[in-house]
Amino acid sequence: MGDEPVMATNDDASECKRGAVQLGYWSDDYISYFVKHVERRAPEINRGYYARVKGIENFIQKFINKAGSSAQLINFGSGFDTLYWKLKDEGVQISNYVEIDFPSVTAKKCYLIKRSKHLLQRIHDQDGEVKLSSTDLHAGNYHCIGADLRNLSQLEEKLHQAEVNFNRPTLFIAECVLVYVENECVNRILSWISSKFKSGLFVNYLNV
Question: What is the pTM of this model?
Answer without folding.
Answer: 0.93
